[in-house]
Amino acid sequence: MNSGIQVAYAADVFCELIRVCGAENDFVNGIWVQYDTEGGDSMEKERLDISLCTFDPARPGPYEQYILPHIPPEMRREPERFAALGAAWNGCAVGVAVITEDPDVPGAATLASLFVDPQVRRRGVGTSLLRASVKTAAAAGAERLTLFYTLSGEDLEAMDRAVRTLGGNPEFRLPVYTLDSTDFHTSRLLGRAFRPDYRIPVNVVRFTDLTSEQLKALHADPEAPWYSPGMQPELSLAYLNDGYVAAFWLGRMSTPGNYAVQGIWSSIAAPFNTFHVLLTAHVNLCYSHSGGDFLYHCSTGVEFAERILRTYTGGKYRRLEQHRAVLVPDVEE
Questions:
Q1: Cα Rg of the chain (Å, integer)
Q2: Given CB 3.0 to 4.6 Å as the disulfide criterion, which of 30, 199, 275, 297 pairs with 260?
Q3: 282 pairs with which residues across the strands?
Q4: How much is the pLDDT for 20?
């Protein structure tokens, strides 16, 4: 597939995607990178052998390392729901984009995963992956592509810029906080989670250990918001009171060494210290699962929850932002 894609990217490194004819299924088969010299009068050009192509979602191969870990099993189970694009450099995978249909919204698709290897960032690869994703979604009948991304600093600015280049309007959705577990081994509130003698309380169990009756009762509880489909039962904890789920702390591994809180909930039947018990147990669970220290990600738009976060961490966290954007295919292309 010939792309005819051209993108101008203004930064310390200026990139230009050139019109070239690639092999079948290729969107782009080369990128020229121009380095601005000190005086700005001359330019040095370096040819990067970068190509973007489609690949079978059921067989991600080397691209799997760049896909959020909970997605490949779904791709293998239902490959017809996904479209996958890969970026390669010198025969090595360096980036990926995965698109999935939105079963609840006709004509809508979602960017399920996007990643560009740090060694080729700021060279237009992410923008070309996004552009190709929009075209792929449109070819499958989607009228728009929705994406959510959580970044900070220059990475966030670069992603926002790429979205605007393609006609999107990034919107702030919520803050996301990243904690490094190495900062809390001696913490008064969380330090015990890292001790060899720590044991998770008997009334705190993984979701994988809940009985069908307990899950059914939780489903039927009108007060309980049902958990996110992205949660992983083996990394999610429930607090039991009289045999019923009175609170939960949901988690998942986003990438190796990175764990995200998917949601928390507590009923009026839960003791006042339930969240402290669940947080300590969940930190210990992630520490054991990772085999060592890890990064811990959580988000909240509630001021009270942010105060609790500051109390437990002593302000030792990095703040990121989650943005949302919608990209619409160019009808004139």
A1: 23
A2: 297
A3: none
A4: 24
Q: Does residue 271 sit in the same domain as residue 214?
A: yes
> Is 128 in the same domain as 220?
no
Which residue, 146, 159, 147, is CA-closest to 11?
159
Same domain for 156 and 212: no
- 208 and 74 in a common domain: no
CA angle (141 as vertex; 135, 147 as ends), nearest 5: 55
Q: What is the pTM of this model?
A: 0.68
Please report which confidence band the pLDDT of residue 184 belongs to, taking 50, 70 and 90 as the band edges.
very high
Token reading at 240: 């039991």
Residue 37 belongs to domain with CATH number:
3.40.630.30
DSSP label at 193? G
Pairing between strand 204-206 and 31-36? Answer: unpaired
Q: Give the tokens for residue 153.
A: 């600093």
Contact between residue 56 and residue 84 where contact means Cβ atoms under 8 Å apart = yes
Angle at 222 between CA 252 and CA 243, to 5 degrees: 70
Shared domain check, 205 and 165 = no
